[in-house]
């Protein structure tokens, strides 16, 4: 395994659990962690593609508990990989973020105040420092690219992903597109061009609440693990199998339900 700043590169060995947006749902998070505990091996990996935080229901939003747990695992296991999502990015860039008219930035601050009292701002800054350490993508030895969203357009090679935060977080078009783009922001041709430029055959993203999974142009698999339109899916990616396109990834999809 190689960690090139913002890109994790995994060898053709073992398997990887790929889990997407949790958004403060501790029940789903715990179920995935149980799966990981039974799956964990020195050659196996867990990849969580971002957006651990910001539940829609403040009363049941366990973003802080999930974040603290995942942060500990990330810092104490070389095979536990957290990627930056647009909701974590929003705290770094100090951008307010809304869903269905709900100010999730304000809700997160409320959770911090409830748990940490007058120390909440210090705790927020510590979380922001942690988010800045997170990679933005994974590239596997069998040519699968994994990120929160995207693809970003105007990427010429994989080195641009490795160096993507060199331009900062706030006014960085390529990073913004990697974290925010949904299909419609880009075309099927954009997916093909991006994958060819970075030397991959298929990609896995979260970000969009589909019904479990959705295959875009046969090369991009959109996965919804918790914040979904119905089914809750994840991928048990065989790092040793030949991956020609997204159809090969579909064979590796599993469901919580």
Automatic annotation (TrEMBL):
Question: Domain of life here?
Answer: Archaea
Q: Which organism is it from?
A: Methanothermobacter tenebrarum
Could you tell me which Pfam families the record lists for this protein? Metallophos
> What InterPro entries does this protein's entry cite?
Calcineurin-like_PHP, Metallo-depent_PP-like, PP1_catalytic_subunit
Residue ranges constituting the Calcineurin-like phosphoesterase domain according to the UniProt record: 15-210
Protein's name according to its UniProt entry: Calcineurin-like phosphoesterase domain-containing protein
